[in-house]
Amino acid sequence: MPEHVAIVTGAAGDIGQAIARRLLGDHDRVVLADRDLAGAEAVAGELGPKALAVQVDVTDPDSCARLADQVRAAGQAVTLVNNAGAALGPSLHATGPESWRADISLNLDAAYYVFQALADQLTAQPSAVVNIASVNGMSVFGHPAYSAAKAGMIHLTRLIAVEYGRYGLRCNAIAPGTVRTRAWQARAEANPAVFEEAAAHYPLGRIVNPVDVAETVGFLASPLAAAITGTLLPVDCGLTAGIPALARTFTQSRDY
Fold first, then answer.
1. Is the CB of residue 58 less than 8 Å from the CB of residue 84?
2. CB count, 10 Å around CB of 112?
3. Residues 9 and 83: beta-carbon distance below 8 Å
């Protein structure tokens, strides 16, 4: 029987590392796919022989096709996590055509390219796809091109779930809120209180950490979620449920 393989894109990043570490617990191998090969190899070295680092440019269909060949050589793909992503323009006014296209390419097109390259392997047996979207795809929190792309990713999730469900393929999306990662480094250097300020908007009084996202991926990829497909699951410490400070302002009640 071929080894069961999970593929995580953007695996050199903080969230990708946490997801790969979580999926190692119930897969024979995990492919760490990232444009930063040295970073992916460093993570693979920490995770051990079950982890395989592969270089890929998820915005290039040919590179994604090469990734699919390497996955096939490693075993049977049963889980794909489209995690690679980043945000450029902070506002519409500050977003030009080039940065708009770059955000759409990395945060929407790439998820399609990777899935399309691996679809024939994922449909050979029951499998799971988990797309890492964002609360930005649900409401306005800045970074408009990134947000538009993540909204598209959420609908791509439904498209895959409906069309490929007959093969036993389940596709779901996760929408994290603010996650403490290296992607926030520049903002944290400019404003050391940025995480505390962000946490004040969350009902749980804290922001998300990479392990929160990874555990949700593990659940959605597991038999525990066998009847769940086409859904979007916010992992946001309550942000999209409501903002306590606004409720306090509107009601003038200290109960919030």
1. yes
2. 18
3. yes
**Strand residues in 83-223 grouped as ranges (E):** 127-132, 169-176
Q: 3-state class of 186 per DSSP?
A: helix
C-alpha radius of gyration, the chain, whole number: 18
Helix axes 210-221, 14-23, angle to 10 degrees: 40
Q: What SS3 class is residue 179?
A: strand
Q: Among all residues, which ones are annotated catalytic?
A: 146, 150
Domains and CATH numbers, the chain: 4-187+207-241 (3.40.50.720)
186 CB-side CA count, 13 A = 3
Q: Write phi, then psi, for 8 (nearest 5 degrees).
A: -125, 115
Nearest Cα to 135, choosing from 8, 235, 205? Answer: 235
Q: Does the predicted TM-score (pTM) go above 0.85?
A: yes
What does the pLDDT look like over 35-62, one tens digit per residue?
999 999 999 999 999 999 999 999 999 9
- Least Cα distance to 54 among 84, 12, 92 occurs for 12
105: left (phi over 0), alpha (psi -120 to 50) or beta: alpha
Beta-strand (E) ranges in the chain? 4-9, 29-34, 51-55, 76-82, 127-132, 169-176, 232-235
Predicted confidence (pLDDT) per residue in 89-104, tens digit = 999 999 999 999 999 9
Q: Identify any residues that bridge with 169 across adjacent strands, giving them in sequence order.
A: 127
| Lowest mean pLDDT, pick from 10-14, 126-130, 159-163, 198-202 | 198-202
Identity of residue 193: A
At what angle are helices 110-122 and 144-164 packed, to 10 degrees? Answer: 20
